[in-house]
Design goal:
3 helices; alpha+beta; 6-stranded antiparallel sheet; 7-stranded antiparallel sheet; 234 residues
Length: 234
Amino acid sequence: MKIAFAFLATLLVLVSAASAAPTCSPTATLDTYLVANFSCSIDNLLFSNFGYSPSAIPVGVTIPANGITVTALSIPGDEGFQFSSGWAVRTQSDGSSSFQDSLITFTVSTVDHSASLTDLSLSFNGDFTGSGSTSVNEHYCPGGPLSGCPGGSGVRQVTNPPPAFDDHVVFTSPVSTLGISKDINVTSGTNGTARISQVLNNFSNGSVPEPGTCMLLGGGLLGLGLMRKRSKRS
């Protein structure tokens, strides 16, 4: 019996090592994701290579990384992130246009390296008055980084006006990795306001157990079964 418990304990350690992946925090600010070599997972999706580049006019209204909240979306088979902040501008007192722009980049890949990423969806809640406008442009590369994307990158866009609050694309064939570049923008124009408070990004995939984990579990169950047979004979 002691041998069986020792075997089971060793098995659990091996399974944990095989399937271990840092889990994305339910809610954190974007600066958490910008630490060097940072990556985290939601189920079978691994998110890494985060980058952020903000700009604004006037410069005093630039959105810092710690001013953007990142919420993990743990929808089975359709995981992703919600980015929330107070993107909001109005025409300046001298009639000049104002804008805020947040460029967020990252890589999505499957933990088990399977080609199971099938599509992505993008949505937001932008609104405006007068000459204002809101938009989110997302460039994506199925199969690799955006730089030198094999076959060329694609782009999705949600805007208001016109009221295109969501967009969705199905890839020609499933892939194991995606390069993402998301540009969030609010612009007032010469007589208006613009506002965005949240942007959602989901990535559909077929989550399956890691092959190594399955092999370890199968081997462990077989080993325990053999031990039980031997103990009964003795």
